[in-house]
Amino acid sequence: MELTEFATRLDERLDVEDLDGLDYAVNGLQVGSEDGTVERAAFAVDGVALTFEEAVEWGADVLVVHHGVSWGGIDRVTGKEYERLGTLLRNDLALYAVHLPLDAHRELGNAAGVAEFLDLDVVDGFGREGPATVGIRARAGEPQGVAEMRDRLADLPNDGVRVLDFGPDRIEDVAIITGSGTDWLDEAREEGVDALVTGEGKQPAYHEAREAGVNVFLAGHYATETFGVQSLREVVEGWGEGIETTYVEHPTGL
């Protein structure tokens, strides 16, 4: 398959244009030749030296990641940027990155993956960002206890789950924003959810959660963002184009 077709298909499947201008990351094909082709595609959370090297060793033509190398533009190709881009260019490895669209997608996204992992049903978007949302709101068929939800999240590739248990003992209505989502605690209060599930928090989150009366689960930035790229791997395999795939896993514990 031509690389440009590969990228266009993913752009369209993820509705990348819907979040155009709202994301400080550059979504879509970040590095690659217009004449490139794809026979082998690797998938990873982070576009960094470790995943680049492993993708090259496996013989990938493209690496699909959630965190790419361009966050609003690259002013200088020196230092770590030089080393990272050098690995891609020397080995003719293309890089496709998708950030907020992969967090927010109701079917393939990271938040949707967390909801399924927790046996929750997606009911709406959550986490307003301009005219769009970057997370989801979900509901439990049967209420879950705080300890039960914590223990489930502990099965993700993290080093434990931190809980700010300031909400109800039984959880039904849940907001999910993967990565770093405690900036939306005010919205969680307004929406009256029982819990906010995210990856990592900021210092003010403790008091904001306490004052809002909301449970907050900090399950790891990396751990909560493993779902989207693995869903994209299934999408590519489902095209039936004979593209070989692999998943490159490098948990950070953060």
Question: What labels would you give this structure?
Answer:
11 strands; elongated; alpha/beta; five-stranded mixed β-sheet; six-stranded mixed β-sheet; single chain; 27% strand; 10 helices; 254 residues
What does it look like?
The protein is α/β, with parallel strands linked by helices and 254 residues long. 33% of the residues lie in helices and 27% in strands. The strands form two sheets. Strands 5-6-8-9-10-7 form a six-stranded mixed sheet, sandwiched between helices. Strand 3 (62-67), helix 3 (79-90) and strand 4 form a beta-alpha-beta unit. Helix 2 (49-58) runs parallel beside helix 3 (79-90) and helix 5 crosses helix 10. The protein is elongated and about 55 Å long. It starts with a helix and ends in a 7-residue tail after the last strand.
Secondary-structure map with pairings?
Elements: H1 3-13, E1 28-31, E2 40-46, H2 49-58, E3 62-67, H3 79-90, E4 94-97, H4 100-104, H5 110-117, E5 120-129, E6 132-145, H6 146-153, E7 162-165, E8 170-176, H7 185-191, E9 195-198, H8 205-212, E10 215-218, H9 221-224, H10 227-238, E11 244-247
Parallel strand pairs: 2-3, 2-11, 3-4, 8-9, 9-10
Antiparallel strand pairs: 1-4, 5-6, 6-8, 7-10
